[in-house]
Amino acid sequence: MDFRDDVNLDSSQVEDVGGRGGGGGGGFPGGAVIGGGGIVTLIVMVVVFVLNNLSGGDGRPAQQQPPSNLSQQCQTGKDADQSEKCRVVGVVNSIQDYWKTEVSGYRPAKTILYSGGVRTACGAADSSVGPFYCPGDQRVYLDLSFFDELHSRFGAKGGPFAQAYVIAHEYGHHVQNLLGALEGGSSVATELQADCFAGVWAKNAIDTGFYDKPFSRSEIAEALDAAAAVGDDRIQQRTGGRVDPDSFTHGSSAQRVNAFQEGYKTGRPVRCDTANLR
């Protein structure tokens, strides 16, 4: 996933707050997002609530990181190829450049990089929650340590494009929010649509001008592997429980893979209608 060396990055779309936003208890009950009007009935995180069940539970505090000045660090695509945080900036820029051409009146959503814990308009969260989108402040929240968790605890192969898939999924929720599609319906349908939207962006990313060439088969395979790793059935199997489709919140591994592939194959948001995703 190589960025064009000379492309200019807009670091204002990503803010690194380090560890200063400590969660201090609370968090998201059962993995749900808490908005101004109460608990939103769908789950808008890439990972399911069982992240808490998978945590080591050794009582050690999360490592706190100081904030960084991304405007100085992340200026061009060359920086994005050399730094994980700058790569996030580049991915976010590309995703939002695409969606502003597809959604009338698109409003950019900032990504907040944090370490350990963070306070949001949806409540307090710590890194065990995983990446999530908060409709209350229209921001994506990401602790970069999740990308290690994706490999070490969920069994995904990882890689730069697996990370891009995670971010694109969360921005899929932002698109849903802008379109008024975030509330109502089943959480599984909502999550699969976000996976499909991630695939749509991947198909059209080259047209945003941030990348040297379209994504390779091996890069797309990273996304598919990550999508499969966070399927509800795979997670239930890893935690030693029985697979219970009635308790699914994000969809099975096969459903998540198929949803991303539908978006990537067609490159058309209209193909991500929830009726098409099963």
Structural overview:
The protein is globular, with a radius of gyration of 17 Å. The protein has one domain. By secondary structure, the chain is an alpha/beta fold. The protein has helices at 51-54, 70-73, 77-82, 84-102, 146-152, 160-178, 187-204, 217-229, 232-238, 253-266, and strands spanning 14-18, 34-35, 38-39, 110-114, 117-120, 123-126, 132-134, 139-142.
Task: Output the strand order for the largest sheet.
Answer: 1-4-8-7
What is the CA-atom radius of gyration, in angstroms? 17 Å
User: What portion of residues is helical?
Assistant: 25-40%
Task: Tell me the distance between the termini.
Answer: 29 Å
Provide the low-confidence segments as ranges: 20-63
Structural class: alpha/beta
Major sheet details: 4 strands, mixed
Beta-strand portion reads 5-15%
The total tally of domains equals: 1
Shape: globular
Count of distinct strands? 8
Can you write the helix and strand succession as a string? Answer: EEEHHHHEEEEEHHHHHH
List the helices and strands and how they pair.
Blueprint: E1 14-18, E2 34-35, E3 38-39, H1 51-54, H2 70-73, H3 77-82, H4 84-102, E4 110-114, E5 117-120, E6 123-126, E7 132-134, E8 139-142, H5 146-152, H6 160-178, H7 187-204, H8 217-229, H9 232-238, H10 253-266
Parallel strand pairs: 1-4, 4-8
Antiparallel strand pairs: 2-3, 5-6, 7-8
Helix pairs in contact: 4-6, 6-7, 6-8, 7-10, 8-10
Keywords:
278 residues, alpha/beta, two-stranded antiparallel sheet, globular
Structure summary:
40% of the residues lie in helices and 10% in strands. It has helices at residues 51-54, 70-73, 77-82, 84-102, 146-152, 160-178, 187-204, 217-229, 232-238, 253-266; strands at 14-18, 34-35, 38-39, 110-114, 117-120, 123-126, 132-134, 139-142.
